[in-house]
Amino acid sequence: MKRYETIFITHPELSEEDHAELEEKLRSTVATLKGDIVKLEDWGTKKLGYAIHKNSRGRYFLLDYLAAADLVRELERNLRLNDRVLKFQTVKVDERSSAEAAKTPKEGTPPEKIVRIGEPPVTPEGPRTEEPEKAKTEGGEIK
Amino acid sequence: MKPPVRKKRSFQRRKVCVFCADSGMKIDYKDIKTLGHFVTERGKILPRRISGNCARHQRKVTIAIKRARNIALMPFTILSS
Question: Residue A34: which residues within 8 A CB-CB, separation 6 or more?
């Protein structure tokens, strides 16, 4: 098993029941194929970088999990078939297999909150806050 | 005949890779704030000669920006109004 994270964007005007249903579906898929969900984050509705199916906003979710390749394939198939999901992307985070290695946060990253789907989003922004002072001395273009 | 006098270009301080200078910084495609420093206002990826990144980190930044674009966290282009 490897550690993956899948970001998926749902339609911004979906009801909470629809989200609960989707979450249930994903969780059962992960359970039947013996994966392990590390966390499921709700980033809330954000403005998209570009319109997807004429939607300029979308609700982001991050699913962080341990899985074998067939589970990833199945999850992606589910997301693809679900027309409430605008877009998704899976990235392999870590080759390490053990669950406990995945649960100990790597140094440098702040501990992240587990946000369940259905609850109001807490922090929609990314974890890191500001670029350090050094960047300012680099010349105008960077800043 | 004298050789043509080469015009002196204004000397720019050599840039140091931000990520090498601060090892605590991670390149993550979800971290739009940091990646935002490495694109132009039109959304294009800044070249190394401008951003000052080292080759290794520039490569990672490039991949991260492309991932962020794919999942609509960042735009591919920003049209000037």
Answer: A68, A71
